[in-house]
Design brief:
By secondary structure, the protein is an alpha+beta fold. 46% of the residues lie in helices and 13% in strands. It has five helices and four strands, in the order βαβαααβαβ.
């Protein structure tokens, strides 16, 4: 088979029968040493992260950092404003009246946590990514309904077209397609 030299290969897309076969393929792909691959299914599959060998998400730490920043920032701003910047004696109440600071501190903590979650997710997922070459595949359109897929990208160190295709066939793929960039 003559390879097309006009286009570059993005990777090999393999379709599997059901979630169990996809899970098995993910475990085999991870065990084989592939690093640049991904799995797609129309719904979350329990245990897929472990099968793929994914590390725990760092998003929780990002959100916690933003929450602490919001909490300390709000408390610092209110405390400085009430006692140093613009001290106003209202009916003899203390300048640092912490119970009165709770609503603003809570709101700013939640606001910065939400920003950390959204922008942290964008950062960790390398978004926005407006186009992915697998969107050109008609077969891949089934991923939103009843398709279970693994794609091994060509920039993986272990990727070799024939060997990777044979590996995916041994893993139980029912259809294998070359995705062009």
């Amino acid at each position: 088979m003559k390879e097309n030299t006009d286009k570059q290969t993005y990777g090999l897309l393999a379709e599997f029968k059901n979630p169990a076969h996809l899970m098995k393929a993910a475990k085999l792909t991870n065990k084989a040493g592939y690093k640049n691959y991904d799995c797609y299914s129309p719904f979350p599959i329990h245990g897929m992260d472990d099968a793929m060998g994914l590390k725990p998400s760092k998003l929780g730490y990002i959100v916690l950092g933003h929450a602490i920043l919001g909490f300390t920032g709000a408390l610092s701003l209110i405390s400085w404003t009430a006692s140093v910047g613009y001290p106003v004696n209202i009916s003899g109440k203390p300048f640092l009246n912490f119970p009165a600071f709770v609503p603003v501190t809570f709101e700013l903590t939640i606001l910065l946590s939400a920003f950390g979650a959204v922008f942290g997710m964008f950062f960790l997922n390398n978004m926005p990514k407006h186009h992915n070459p697998i969107f050109n595949s008609d077969t891949f359109k089934k991923a939103t309904d009843d398709g279970f897929f693994v794609i091994i990208e060509s920039d993986d160190d272990l990727f070799h077209d024939e060997k990777t295709r044979a590996f995916l066939q041994e893993a139980g793929a029912v259809h294998i397609e070359t995705i062009e960039k």
